[in-house]
Structures are given as C-alpha cells and as structure tokens.
Amino acid sequence: MRWKKTAAILAAAGLAALGACGRGKPARTPHSGEKFSLAPEIPIDTLPRLLESPIAYPQEAKARGIQGSVVVRALVGKDGGVREVSEDSTQSASPLLVQAAMAAVRQWKFEPARAKGAPVEIWISVPVHYKLH
Fold it and tell me: Does residue 78 contact residue 109 with C-beta atoms inside 8 Å?
C-alpha cells in the first residue's frame, strides 16, 4: 500500500520514481527464451527533494517558436547529484528541447532519497516544460 502513497506524492510533486516503487515488476524486457527477473524491492522512506533546478530555454527553439514538454529520466545519487539522464523514448518533443532538458536536469541538485535512514540512488522521471509567453 505504501507504493500507492508514494506514487500519489510523486504525481503531486511532478516527479515519478522508476524501479524503486515498482514492486514485482520486471527490471527489463527479457530476450527470447529468457525469464523475467524482478527488480529488487527498496523500501524508500523519503523521496528525493528538488533543491536547485536551473532551466534555460534554448535560443534556437525560442527563435523558431518551438515549445513543449519533455520527460527526462534521472538517476539521483546518494549525494543528491544527478548521475545519469536519459530521454523517455515515447515522447515526441523537439530534439532541441529534449537535449536542453537533459542538459538542465544533469545540473539539478536534490536532497537524496532515503531508505532506513541512509541515502540511496533512485531513478525518477522529471517533466520539463518549455512554454513561450
């Protein structure tokens, strides 16, 4: 039941945890003839809290009137820094916005997630919105 509360909190904050709250879900897609392996359960006590989130609108996208939203997957490390980023492959945002969003999220700082009081790494999904005024 805790994962439902966690998902609700993340949705309200505009973040989504990947893997850590996915109890009993496949860690990856198996190859032909291979069985699914389950992602380990990590009981997260507190989720990452965003501290710094600088975002710059790409000048070329601004000049061309491009706007939209990008979902970036980020691995938040035990120190609160972003260790890895990747794009959500299902999105249709402009490549200019995707690259800018990934570069921005790499610079973000978080208070790390904690499990049993100790900091832990966790994957999250972060929406980045680019809108011209």
Answer: no
